[in-house]
Queue: 4 jobs
Job 1
Amino acid sequence: MDGPEIDGARALREFVVGEPEHYSRVYLVDADGPGGAVLDAAGPKDAVLLPVAAPASNSAAAIFRYDGQLEEPGDEMFLGGCTVELHDYIAAAFVQLVGPSVVAIVDDQGWLALLDDVGIARRTGVFPSALLDPRVILANRAAIERPDEMQVPNAIRVRTDGALRVGMRGEVCGHLSTTTDLAAAAPRLAALRSSPSADEWRAEHPERGWLTRCLRATDLLKMLRGESGTVSISGFGWALVDDDRADAEPSPFHPFLVRTPQGFLLADVATRRRVSLSPLTAAVVEVSQTSSSEELAVERLVRRLAVTASDARRLRSEAMAAFRIHSDGACDETPAEMTVHP
């Protein structure tokens, strides 16, 4: 049974990004593809994006009808009264976006442009405009962020001949006639196929390690959209403690230290929680995130805050415990408001 428009948009988003949330798996059946066979194979927790011309069929899966296509730059898909357009990443910076859009890395040049934009964001705090638009989704983001993670494909494109591809433009992962193919795990990188090439993907690049954190920073800026005044994010063109002694980088999944006209925040894009910080606590958090050892963090805090080593060690321990930031980069659920004082 066809679902409401919002569920169709959710299914398309999960297919494009490659990250399951509401559905276990999302199938996109190409025009003239074997829609009936897909509906037979899909389960009650799956979603199927089905061409409008495909015959009606009963299925336990959620069914959403679409027209058009979404594979090459310039393509448009019509789903639930909404038009979604696909853009090449490089071109997206130069076109006027008029509605919901998907931005995709389609070649090595797009991949290098994305990494260059990460470098610009780190140096200046200026982020790529297309990724700040709340109407824009970056295709295959899960694969871009965690390429080596093994994953049973959850976004499946079903070609006209029954071939199964991972995501929008990914590698062939099987055929509809052999349903066991759908249970085999593969690296998320398979969703990118040759965009970028394997050689370019593995090549060393100074901004590679900051890519995921930069993308999450764009999520943060969209989350803070509407805040009055300028927002600065630690590590991106601004540092609260600029003592030239930072020798470590925050985990991509650590919360962000943010400066706003109203004060300092610790913001977690995963939980969407924002914690108000005093200037002292903000300094403790940033030093802790950018020091490779407790000893270095304590030394930096002694100089910054003019406190004893024992007080600096206590401040660091209390802040890390209060905000539940672990060495592996994880962040537990954080209280809505908390300030640590000496």
Note: The CA atoms of residues 222 and 297 lie 31 Å apart.
Job 2
Amino acid sequence: MSKLFLFLVLFCCASNGYASDPRPEMHALAEEITILQKYLFTENSFTALDSRQKVKNSLGAIRGHLESLKRSDIKDDVAMSINLEMLKQHIQDTSRAVDKGDFLYVKNMVKSSFQMCINCHTRKSTPDFSWPESDMTKMKEIERADYYFATRQFSKGKSIYEDLIESYPKTSSNISDIRNSLLEMAIYFAKVQEDPKEGAVFFTRVTKNKELPVYLVKESDNWAKEFLVWSKESKSKKDLKPKELLSKGKKLLEGDQFTLVSELGRSFHIRRLRASVLFHKILEDKSATQQQKGEALYYLGKIYSITSSNLFFRFGELYLKACIQENKKTEIAQKCYVSLESIVIDGYSGSAGTSVPEDEKNELSRLKTMAF
């Protein structure tokens, strides 16, 4: 589990095309991982005061490496800068939890970070590295699969996800694990392989398992249909330019209301994943205009606010904030602000009313001034 901290830096902050090779500095984190490993598996060893201090020191060293990465060429890649900032906040929050001795929260923070790695590491431009073997004997199957996806060992992770899904309910996996496995398989076929034909075959097979909850069967059926429609589209014989990528991404999202629970929302999930690939390509294309990058950030913010809604960190919000900061006093910045404001206020609203924390209000006010 503790190896995840190394993965976070390696996967979320590394991309082809940087002047300096990030691997030496990242590999230097191995010593910190060795220190962390013995403390994050059992609660008893973690609760001792001296062990908390050692964990805190290791997290501090990791933050130091992140600061060095912020000063590298990574800062010129908008998407990578967002990932790096998100990781930095995540490590800071984890460190504060260590101070409080809240082991369960620390463990959950580490586990929740896998999705951040998977999201970033399914980018086509992310390089493969040689990863050290990890002792995963104490990990659940779902955690091992997440580990493999985060380290780009997709075939190993895919095998576990498939087994969890297809052997249900014979396995001890809970519905949450099955749901997560389905989501990761959708990412695999839509983003990693971009293979709609196999995606359609897989999710059609999932619908045959009548032991699954009805809503998961219906969702899988919708996804199978989306993959099937995609498989019948004609393939482009050339690399698309930013303008074409933007146009295609927008077309995929036509009519998307960005809702979680509607039938429309379920069927749009695959299209959202497809569109996210196109918008990331725009951010990576040096020929893209500022306006095109701004629109890509806007749509990624909308997409990730839905597809990452079950995670601790607020992925979509960071893309919307970057959109505002990179495009001050423009129409696209204003669109990003309106979406961001809506997401933040909705997130702090419930049956008891709306209660937005003061620091969130101040941040919204700061961004509003940038946008308008």
Note: Residues 1-19, 126-130 have pLDDT under 50 and may be disordered.
Job 3
Amino acid sequence: MRRAFLSASIMNVLAMVFIFIEGVLLARYLGPEGRGAISMYMAAFLLVFPLATLGVKQSTAYSIGKANIEYSSMCITQWRFLPISVVLLTTILLLLYWWMGLLTDTLLIIVMLIAFNLKIMLDYISGFAIGTNNVVYQYSSELVRSSVSIVFLIGIIIFNKLSIFVYFAIQCFSQFIVMLYVLTWLPSVANSLKSRRGTGSSFSYVEFCSRGIRYSLPLFIMGLNYSSDILLLGKLASDHDVGIYAAAVALASMTWFFPNLLASMFFSRSISTHSKGETEATHYVLNKLKIIMVIMLLFVISLVIMSETIVVNLYGGDFFESINVIYILMPGIYLMILFKILNSELSGRGITDLAIKVFSTTFIINLALNIILIPEYTYLGAAIATSVSYSLGALCFTAIYYTKYIKLK
């Protein structure tokens, strides 16, 4: 576990560094307007993605880790769900882009849709890695994608050919390279699964689908909190305001690098834990959470203190207004660590209703605050709405988690 965690940590850090550098380069060479336009396209995708995937990755991992369903059954199931996901993603994205007035470049839209649908296929496949507790494969795939992307982005900048279309063409190419890379480790995972014997119980597509939707709904609702800010900013304000806000979010979200990694590890661990060991697993996560919160508090304080220097030196003077956005976002960003860690443990046990209920409510609050605040305060209003909804959601989730799953044990 420790060796896997160390390997995954190194890969995750490298991938996140490359992604962060990519964001900085886009901000530097495309400015707030160009950065904002890319953020709107991506926000729509990130909003639709969890819903379009139907939670197949998580349901696959659960079926393999908990139910011990055979590999061949999972492959057939994924191929049957894939066309549904592709149609959902493409249809909803096109409707969102039409609503946002972003359907201006047909070739750009085609390239983006290819990249995004390749991402769905890769997301499906990663369920096999998670279900066998091989999260290193998942993070190595993301490292390959980010490495290819940053190398080609730098090359394009050197030749002064960077544009929004070229950026998404790079993303499409990098996803294709990852697909080839996945073929190098998937056979070993498949062989390990084929050596198992299934439980002999009948496989239910209805159960698989319903479990997947239970996994995808919390992710979709969580995405609404961020994506709605970006989309409403683009609709009610300007590309410039979106660029300022997106740059601040990218920097503030660095706080989630290690918590996200740990959450993935805890999710995989929880899936592999049988019911008799769930109490022990829960206390293990809680003990780790205390340490994580202390360490990340120090990180948050340091980031706030250094934010002005970081923004000006990395993004440039055009993004100076992002500093105040970071100040507003940080309380909510920090408290969301509670949710990310605790929810990963619950999700591994197949319990997703708590996240759905809590963040459905906070999304309504977030949406109302966005509509009220964005017209007058633009990106600052969006930051306030996000920070308030994140804080309320994380605190409510933690309180209910403690009362329902800890105090009663």
Note: The CA atoms of residues 112 and 368 lie 30 Å apart.
Job 4
Amino acid sequence: MNEKLGYCKANSIITVNDESKKYSKLARIYTISSIFIGPFIILLGTGFTRGGGDYCDSVYYLSDGTIDPRRITEFNNAQIFQVSGASLMLVLGLGIIIYTIFSIKKASKINIWPLLGVIIMMFGYILVILSSGKGTQSC
């Protein structure tokens, strides 16, 4: 088959241009959805806490002045949600990058802008993981 036309797959001709468009659309969907999913992960994670994410909020102090033991549990639940949500999105972003590398022929031109958007959003999810990690919080 002529190299410029593409290759045969299931009795249809898929051109390199079609494959590139498919990748580009997938990368754009990931990038645009990450704009909304990233903040949603953070806000929903802090929603698990009664103090709205504030470790020193007055709702965590009992009437006798001691600290409510449920505070640690709430913040651990928030951390688990944030880290697992961001990790899932990192895996999806990595999957898109791997799909791009292995599905498009090396000789074809790759539009780098959607891939750059995926990489930037992946750095955002890394920031979510680092910011929700275990820290030494004190009041």
Note: Residues 1-8, 11-16 have pLDDT under 50 and may be disordered.
